[in-house]
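Methods: holo model generation. Sequences were used as deposited, without trimming of termini or removal of tags, and paired with ligand SMILES retrieved from the corresponding compound records. Each pair was processed once, and we did not select among multiple samples. The sequence and 2-acetamido-2-deoxy-beta-D-glucopyranose SMILES for this entry were:
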Amino acid sequence: MNFPKLSLLTCLSLSLPHSFLALKCGQWNTHSCLGDIDIRYDADYTNSITEQNDLWAKQDGFYMVTQTSTQEMAHFNPVDLTGTVGLPYDDNAVVSYVNITTSGSRRYEHRYIIYPPAPQEFCDLPVPPGATNVLPYIPPGVPVPPGFAPVCGVNGYATFVESFKTSSHEKDGSLVNVGGALGFARDSGFDKSGDGVAYAIGERSLSFTGSSDRADGGKGISSKNWIFIGDDFNLARAVLENYNANTAALISSTSYQYTKIASEEDWVDMLQAAFVANNVQFDIASRGGPVPMERACLGARCPNETEWCEHDPECSESPYKEPNARLKAGVVAGFCIAGAAVLLAIVTLIFIRRLKQQKERIKAQFAARIAATIDLGVDANIAMNPDALKEEFQKIDSGADDGGDGYISKDELWAFMSSGKAGTMTKKDFDVLFLTLDDDGNGKVDYLEFINFLSTCGAYVKKEVQNKEDFVDDDENSA
Ligand SMILES: *[C@@H]1O[C@H](CO)[C@@H](O)[C@H](O)[C@H]1NC(C)=O
Ligand SMILES: *[C@@H]1O[C@H](CO)[C@@H](O)[C@H](O)[C@H]1NC(C)=O
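and the model returned the structure below.
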């Protein structure tokens, strides 16, 4: 029997799925998933900022913030109305009200900045042409609201900064900048520039870095480090440094103190009171909108969904994709071995069935040949007549040159099988027949072997005899 040769290559090409049939990792037959050891590849791992690092949850809340700036220019400089350089207030006297809200994969920070009125000494100084010593400034051509006339030394000023961040595909609690906005009065559009990232460091620190394009065409780099001071995480300090990336000069360094306000209500009250106390020329509602906020941002335009989804891992595609799984090496071998075993079993089964069919064919033919000549008497159900069998044996034995020696030779059996009406047997079947008859393999069949074999084809003999009797009956009936 020839079994098909299974080279490993054949096996592989037959058993391995094509590359477009993606294999799932982590199955019994494939390698474990990258996502099991690397959360970036785990599509099910949370994108929630606070679940990734609860320091962000600790930072969430409402704050009152005081600050100290080293930036000299920030103090009482008339603002250049074309270049928007300068600030006619005291940066160090600023009080901010900050609302940090984290929700799922998104973080919102809204900061109201309130400047007290400038001192009279500053207001008495001459103002250069094209500049002003009081804000907000309404550019020529823009309708001035009724009663709007801010006066230096009388009115304070308010502006805002806000920023929007999302968690990242790193899934490590780091945040990326979606963008931000600055100011009621100046450019209040949503600004996507700034490729900032933020990290939680250890148990108490948050670090923010970013860069942005400066109005003067240069590049700004900023770094802000936040540290929780109190054990209840209600007090924090932060230092913000701004650099000019082109000149490496430090533009400003500001340190902040954040005090958490226990309730949103208190915070809203404090914020509104600060607008009044500092004589801010407009109320919040007329500029940034009512507080609590009813819009998603304070500026003229909020980040839209498309802009959020440039970064938000909830709605953007991760660069970390679980690759198609590979089969385990053992499985490939196992499959080949199992495959070959199955093939072998099938081939063997077919072989055994053929053998059985051949045996039955031979027996049937032999039985038919015997039954054609032997006189079995009337009752076919009775065991075959021993005398008749002996006679049959001798008849076959008498055939060739060595006739009557008590053994049936191969030639004698061939002569017997080829005579009569039992049909012709193939040479191949005949060889098998002789081998089966010749039990001891001595090349000749003795009487005992002859009887032995006949007994195994009893059923066929009986069938042949039955056919013969039916034929006789039919014959008689028709007579
Ligand atoms: C704080 O910010 C969140 C997120 O933008 C906003 O939904 C909420 O109304 C703000 N709270 C107040 C008091 O303005
Ligand atoms: C979102 O804003 C961008 C500008 O950054 C704009 O091109 C886009 O059409 C806006 N998408 C939607 C859905 O409003």
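The chain has 13 helices and 14 strands.
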